[in-house]
Design brief:
248 residues; 9% helix; mainly beta; four-stranded antiparallel beta sheet; 15 strands; 1 helix; Immunoglobulin-like
């Protein structure tokens, strides 16, 4: 028989081994794999069907405004998709049109207001907060007290679309007669960034694009930019300015 001191040492060793084995049997390590978070970086696609160039309406008339919306992750918030009618730089009326993709219409009654230009702006936020804002071409409202002139005498320089944009926006304009035409881009300080068009042009409808670079092809910083259209009509030089925001 082992002496008592050895028996006690052996018992302690057995208890220690048993304790360590139990701990290792109860404890464990593991890992899990979760799926990649779904993040949509694609902006909604909005296409505004503009009224024909030089459209002239009078107060009380109704016009059907049309646009289409396409988005993989539409937002169910009723305020996420809104159509707006702007009289010049003043928001006159807005209407939410829901998250549905496809074609949308707005039967808009022309207000009997002072003469001026109006345009439709369609804003769409998707589920991930991506915003697309597209403006339609300008058209003209005349008060009922004003006679409707020959529409061909009114040149149109549409708002840049899309707006805001990155990296490219489209500038459309209509010339009432042939003559020298210049389209330029200026930054918020008034410095000319690029000349997009400078030549003699026949009468008609035209468009030019700006890709967010200067005359040397250098990428410009995000911010507000001004687009100038200079043209000749009946022996006089006219200039129209539009603005848009280049996203960083």
């Amino acid at each position: 028989m082992l002496p008592a001191v050895y028996r006690h040492a052996l018992t302690f060793a057995l208890l220690l081994v048993t304790s360590l084995w139990s701990a290792s049997a109860c404890a464990g390590t593991g890992f899990g794999v979760s799926g990649a978070a779904s993040i949509d970086t694609k902006f909604p696609v909005v296409d505004v069907a503009d009224p024909p160039p030089h459209t002239v309406l009078q107060g009380g008339q109704m016009i059907t405004l049309q646009w289409s919306l396409s988005d993989d992750n539409p937002n169910s918030d009723p305020a996420a998709n809104v159509a707006q009618m702007w009289l010049g730089d003043v928001l006159y009326e807005s209407q939410a049109f829901g998250p549905g993709t496809g074609q949308h219409t707005w039967n808009w009654t022309v207000p009997d207001t002072s003469s001026g230009t109006v345009h439709l702006v369609v804003n769409s936020f998707d589920l991930f907060g991506n915003l697309t804002s597209v403006a339609g071409a300008d058209f003209t409202i005349l008060s009922t007290a004003t006679d409707v002139p020959d529409a061909a005498l009114a040149p149109v320089f549409a708002l840049p679309a899309p707006n805001p944009f990155n990296p490219m926006t489209l500038l459309r304009f209509n010339l009432p007669e042939a003559g020298p035409v210049r389209v330029t881009v200026h930054d918020a300080r008034g410095f000319r960034v690029a000349t997009l068009l400078h030549r003699h042009q026949n009468a008609g409808t035209f468009s030019v694009r700006w890709d967010g670079t200067d005359q040397q092809g250098r990428r410009q910083a995000g911010g507000t930019y001004f687009f100038g259209l200079q043209y000749a009509q009946q022996g006089e030089t006219h200039r129209v300015v539009r603005k848009a925001v280049l996203l960083p």
